[in-house]
Amino acid sequence: MLQLIEANWPLVAGAVALLLVVAILLLRRAGKAPERREFNDVLSEGAAPAQRNTALIDAPPPPRSPPRAAAGRDCHRCRGR
After folding, report:
1. d(Cα 23, Cα 10) in Å, to the nearest integer?
2. Alpha-carbon distance 50 to 41, whole Å?
């Protein structure tokens, strides 16, 4: 086993260095969590009720479209007779 390590010591040193870098990065990420911000909106407890957009409710209905042509074809009209 000692001969294997002596023959491949650059690889072993690289692996140890890589493990050290990964451990440092993982420990650095496990730091303090960021502060949570409180948002006051309609769903918050004690908030005023939501203001509804009544523009579509109060608007008059749209104008009716003209009636469509009969379902069957009028061949005399299509041929110009």
Report:
1. 20
2. 9
Closest CA to 42 of 55, 52, 33, 54: 52
- Phi and psi (nearest 5°) for 36? -90, 135
Please tell me whether the overall predicted TM-score, pTM, comes out greater than 0.85 for this model.
Answer: no
Place of tokens 């005023």: 48
What single DSSP character describes residue 72?
S
Q: What do you get for the CA distance between the two ends of the chain, in Å? A: 104
Nearest to 38 by CA among 49, 46, 26: 46
Span 14-29, pLDDT tens digits? 999 999 999 998 888 7
| Assigned token pair, 37 | 């911000």
